[in-house]
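Format notes (please read before filing issues)

Several people have asked whether sequences and structure tokens are stored in separate files. They are not. Every record keeps both together, in the order shown below: the sequence lines, then the token lines. Line labels are part of the format and must not be stripped during preprocessing.
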Amino acid sequence: MGRRGGPRPGVRFLVPGLASPALLCTTGCTGPDGSVPPSPSPTSASASAQPVSDADLCTRLVTYWARRTLADDTYGDYQSMRLSHGQYRILLDVVTAGRSARKHQGTDTAGRLMGRQARTACAARHRHGTPSTGPWT
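Then the structure lines:
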């Protein structure tokens, strides 16, 4: 492929499961000092191949955005957060509880509370599978 957007010669794909993306090189892969980068272990690639449940994904998303919102590090547009309307409703409830807890008990307690509430609300939302067929519900 060409220079723009296409893969470079010798680069096949990104290796999943590593802390930072690593390229798997097939030819001519050496560092500036001539060293060869370590290859990923089979367990790191296969460990990330485990599917994540819809409830777990919801919990991760809501908890992430709740912590950012509590830190005033975002604005309230659910579409830019890539949340569904239902996930956003959970986020608003979780952040409201987190703000109250932070005021009375501190940021660490608020973070733990938000995580528990997100997990509980997302589990309830997905207890019968996917809430609907629409992407924004």
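For reference, the curators noted about this record: The chain has four helices and two strands. The longest strand covers residues 11-15.
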